[in-house]
Amino acid sequence: MRMPMFTWATFVTSALILFAFPPLTVGLFLLIFDRMFGSNFFDVADGGNTIIWEHLFWIFGHPEVYILILPAFGIFSEIFAIFSRKRLFGYSSMVFATVLIGFLGFMVWAHHMFTTGLGPIANAIFAVATMAIAVPTGIKIFNWMFTMWGGSIKFTTPMLWAVASFHHSLPVV
Ligand SMILES: [Cu+2]
């Protein structure tokens, strides 16, 4: 619990890479077998199932969103502290929120598949799980704001980048 936040962020990102990439690798292998060797994993006309491809892709694809944003979150934590001339507010809750975002990132992949016909119960569960990520993300945003609160803020180029992009990038996630 004495590591810099950027180190924590890249550590959690590495764990996400470790678990997110194998499903994509499996999906690509099955796809190559369909296209080159005449197997029927995904071809509906031959008794395959396209939805399985969607699952394999998005079990990778949603964690990938966090593989991209978590290192940036780690950079934000360093920049806000340094250019406010204060310690990062709520360090341990920041570590907890990063790990929780990484974990929940694996529980929400079907929000990319709401129109594929999984049914209202599955859709509702994945919708609620998706909204649950707003809690650890909110912890981070409030910690960043409390870090800047009362600090001697310097709007250097990195600070402008961090303030603008945490404001701008979150709706995309
Ligand atoms: Cu997603």
From TrEMBL:
Is Electron transport found in the keyword set? Answer: yes
Q: Domain Cytochrome oxidase subunit I profile, which positions?
A: 1-164
Cross-referenced PROSITE patterns: COX1, COX1_CUB
UniProt subcellular location: Membrane
Q: Which GO terms describe its biological process?
A: aerobic respiration; electron transport coupled proton transport; respiratory electron transport chain
This chain belongs to the protein called Cytochrome c oxidase polypeptide I
What are the coiled-coil residue ranges? none
Instruction: Provide this UniProt record's keywords sorted from A to Z.
Output: Electron transport, Heme, Iron, Membrane, Metal-binding, Respiratory chain, Transmembrane, Transmembrane helix, Transport
Q: What is the lineage of its organism?
A: Bacteria, Bacillati, Bacillota, Bacilli, Bacillales
Q: Which organism is it from?
A: Mesobacillus boroniphilus JCM 21738
Source domain of life: Bacteria
Instruction: Spell out the family assignment given in the record's similarity comment.
Output: Belongs to the heme-copper respiratory oxidase family.
Q: Which GO terms describe its molecular function?
A: cytochrome-c oxidase activity; heme binding
Span-the-membrane segments of this chain are 65-83, 88-109, 121-142
Q: Classify the protein's membrane topology as the record does.
A: Multi-pass membrane protein
- One GO CC term, this protein: membrane
